[in-house]
Amino acid sequence: MASRDNQTLQGVVIGLVLLLILLIVGLLLINNERKKQEARADTAVQDAQSQRQAAGSAQSEANRFKEMMGFKEEDTQDTVQKSFEEDMTKYGSTFDESVRYYSPLLQNLQQENHKLAQSEATAKSNVKDLDEQLKALKAEKDKQFAEYDQKYKQLQEDAAGERTKFEKQRQDLIAEQNKLSEQLAQQRQEVDKARSDLSSAGKKQADQLAKLDRDITLLRSNQLDPDPFAQPADGLVRWVNQKDQKVWINLGEEDHLRPQVTFMVYSGDESDALKADSKGSIEVTKILSPHMAEARVTSDIPTRPLMEGDKIYSQVWNRGRQVGFAIAGTVDINGDGKSDIEELKRIIALNNGKVDALPGKGGEVDGEMTVDTRYLILGTFPESTMKESVDQQQAWAKMTKSADRLGIETISLDEFLNLMGWKVELRTVALGNSARAEDFPFEAKGDYAPPRNQYSPGTFRPRKPQPTY
Predict the structure, then answer these.
(1) What are 200-236's pLDDT values in tens digits?
(2) How far is Cα of residue 393 from the mean position of the Cα atoms in its chain?
(3) Which positions ≥6 away from 259 have C-beta within 8 Å?
(4) Where is the composition biased (Low complexity) (predicted)?
(5) Model pTM?
(6) Domain 235-313 classified CATH 2.40.10.410?
(7) In sequence order, what are the beta bridge partners of 249?
């Protein structure tokens, strides 16, 4: 038992000794680290003192530089930089960027001042020379003034002679003027007499017109009631000049009539324009007054000449109202292989019409067809497989389908131009070596014919009555 206690005591003593050794070693390590840290702190303090001395020296130099450049010690870097940029902009904008600093700038300014001083000296020398030249010019001027004074006196003497001559001519002109005044008074009397005679003749004609109006009213009262479904005329022929092939109609500016509108002419005894036999056609050339226009005869029948009182009618033009049209297919009026759709639009516009719809890009339709659209004008069906032709084919299908749905009459381009009296300009084509390929465009062959609806070809359908709203 005693042996065990000794062993335990020995183990405790050994543990305490080991612990003491470890404690001593730790203290030695801690002491060494403390000495290292103190050495580092001393080094850092010395470095900080050196840096403070360097910063103080740099600050002293910076303050000295500020004073040399005209700044205060308390001015900040931003203040100095801003003032520097302003000085460079103000004084160094004309110099290269490599010399935009105070020292090079001052040297350049000194050189510029030196050049200016030299220029000033040169200018003073030039001024002296100019003064001498000015004195010479003054002497020459005085000499010339003396010569001009002598010439002026001579001119005054000549002017006096011309004034006398002018006065004589003036008296002659006054006498001639008095003679012309007497002749003018006599002619005025003659004009007044002619006006009086013309006024009497006009009054007599007015009485005759009033009598004719009463006769017309009496004749109309004795006639039967007209057909309510008859197509009325657009106007009347007021006067005909058979020699010059000209007529005057009772339509004008207030009727929204424009030049180049074509009318069919038929007998004044007919009451239905659609059933009347055509006597010829006319084309408006000049608008004379609100209800008077001049036209030229484009076609007539020698055995049935155009007469005063004949009626006129246009399938396209409508008084005060625009007629709508739609266009489909390729439009080639003159056969040159190029699109004439703009020319067709111009023809429709000249006749006071408008284009409601026409083929667009991508097979779409630009515009919209409505029940008020009067005709779908069909050009040549595009049979090519090119994208542009395929787009026109799609637009063709859409527009013809809309025409059938809305009851819009379809008419070919040639029939439309013929019914309007439009004539295509004839042109010559050179043959041989001077011939051009575009003068012989490709013409597609086939049995394709444009679709037609229930309306008969070659005629226009009756015009719809204008809305009352």
Answers:
(1) 888 888 778 877 877 777 666 555 555 666 778 889 9
(2) 33
(3) 284, 285, 286, 287, 350
(4) 46-62
(5) 0.38
(6) yes
(7) 237, 293
Dihedral sign for Cα 347, 348, 352, 356, please.
negative
Which of 406, 402, 410, 421 minimizes the C-alpha distance to 457? Answer: 410
Number of neighbouring beta carbons within 10 Å of residue 361: 9
**Token digits of residue 20:** 């003491």
Q: How far is CA 67 from the centre of its chain?
A: 65
Token couple for 37 = 């840290």
Across the range 112-116, mean pLDDT stands at 83
Query: Residue 11: CB partners within 8 Å, gap ≥ 6?
Result: none
* Centroid of chain to Cα 129: 61
Give the Å distances, CA to CA, from 359 to 108, 168, 324, 369. Answer: 74, 82, 15, 12
Closest by alpha carbon to 304, among 327, 278, 335?
A: 278
Q: Which amino acid is at 64?
A: R
- Let me know: does 260 contact 283? Beta carbons within 8 Å: yes
C-beta of residue 80 within 8 angstroms of C-beta of residue 71: yes
Residue 127: partners with Cβ closer than 8 Å, 6 or more residues away:
none
Domains in the chain: boundaries: 40-75, 235-313, 323-439
Chain position carrying tokens 């497989």: 385
Q: Return the CATH number of the domain spanning residue range 323-439.
A: 3.40.50.10190
What is the residue whose two structure tokens read 């207030």?
254
Q: Taking the chain, what is the end-to-end CA distance rounded to the nearest angstrom?
A: 138
